[in-house]
Write a structure and sequence with these properties.
The protein has 95 residues and is α+β, with helices and mostly antiparallel strands. It has one domain (6-83). The chain is built from three helices and five strands. The strands form two sheets. The protein has a three-stranded antiparallel β-sheet with strand order 2-3-4. It has a two-stranded antiparallel ribbon with strand order 1-5. A hairpin with a 6-residue loop joins strand 3 (19-24) and strand 4 (31-33). Helix 1 (36-46) crosses helix 2 (52-60) and helix 2 crosses helix 3. The longest helix has 17 residues, at 64-80. It starts with 5 loop residues before the first strand and ends in a 10-residue tail after the last strand.
C-alpha cells in the first residue's frame, strides 16, 4: 500500500489566514495553495494516493470523474516542482 504524499525535505511552508505558502528552498518559486489547491494538498498529505480524487470530490460535492484529471494533474505538478514526494520515497538520512 502506498503512503500519503509528504512535503519534500527542501519544502518550506507557512500557513497564514488559512492559506498555505510553500516553496522549495532556496530556489522557489513560492506556490500559493488556497481554496481547492489547499484542499488537494491536504488530501494528498493525509490519505492514500488512490483515494485523493474521491476525497476531493466528496469535499467539493462533485463527481470524481468531473475532477479526476485536474486533481491528478495538480498532484503531479506538485511532485514535479519538488514540493511533494511519495510517502514511500526514501529520503537522504532515512533508514
Amino acid at each position: 500500500m502506498t503512503s500519503a504524499y509528504r512535503p519534500s525535505p527542501a519544502t518550506s511552508q507557512l500557513v497564514h489566514d488559512g492559506v498555505r505558502y510553500a516553496a522549495v528552498l532556496p530556489s522557489g518559486p513560492i506556490v500559493v495553495l488556497d481554496g481547492i489547491a489547499g484542499l488537494i494538498w491536504k488530501q494528498a498529505c493525509t490519505g492514500q494516493p488512490a483515494t485523493i480524487v474521491d476525497r476531493v470530490a466528496g469535499a467539493t460535492g462533485t463527481a470524481p470523474d468531473e475532477v479526476r484529471a485536474d486533481v491528478e494533474h495538480f498532484v503531479a505538478e506538485l511532485v514535479a516542482l519538488g514540493l511533494l514526494v511519495s510517502g514511500d520515497a526514501r529520503l537522504p538520512g532515512e533508514a
